[in-house]
Design goal:
Layout lengths: L13 E3 L8 H7 L4 H7 L10 E2 L6 E10 L5 H9 L4 E6 L7 E3 L1 H10 L3 E8 L2 H4 L6 E6 L10 E3 L3 E3 L2 E3 L4 E5 L2 E5 L4 H24 L6 H8 L5
Parallel strand pairs: 1-8, 3-4, 4-6, 5-6, 6-7
Antiparallel strand pairs: 2-7, 3-8, 3-11, 9-10, 11-12
Helix pairs in contact: 2-6
Amino acid sequence: MLNVNTVDDWPTGFSILPLAEQIPNDWLGKFSSMPSAIISDCLGRNVSALGVKPYHGFTPMCGTALTVRTRPGDNLIILKALQMARPGDVLVIDGGGDVSRAVVGGLMRAMALKAGVAGFVINGALRDRDEWSDGDMPGFALGCVPRGPSSDGPGEINVPIACAGLMVNPGDLIIGDCDGVVVVAASELPTIYNRCVELLNREKGVRNSIQSNTMDKKRFDVMLREKGCPI
């Protein structure tokens, strides 16, 4: 067995760090039904995973990020992450954007279900799509291919990663729905939640004005004039 005591002792390309603290259940409950689009708006409209699609249907996902960085087309470190995963963790995997080989498939999905994992976000590909389609395990990925992975490494667990345009730290809150995937830092949960509630209330008011035909019809003309449009 490999004897390592510090990060410097790890072989080149390997790093397995301790699990981050999980998001408390009360915050999971508050964000579990919050639309990803609303959260993205409250994060400046520039935070979301790019290109990932739900391959499990539209079951929502909400949990704590367990981050993984793997060599493209390899799943050895992901298998180790599955052994470490706790109920409620979301495996957020940076596979380098490679879609030539699937790094997660049906057997790993079965392992995740047994462990109580809350879902997968894969900057790469998955396979065994028919198994994901029952909706029991959220799986967001860039693509789906039949070609399987190697299991050689290297890789890292619980390090900051970039995943399909998202910067994700271990312990962040990960939310996924039919629109896509967003991330909220644990330290920002109260602020972002309050913004989301305020935005939902504003949108409710706009919807009511649309239905009652009381929406200000000159509103967009005013905006255009402010931008210099001569109308």
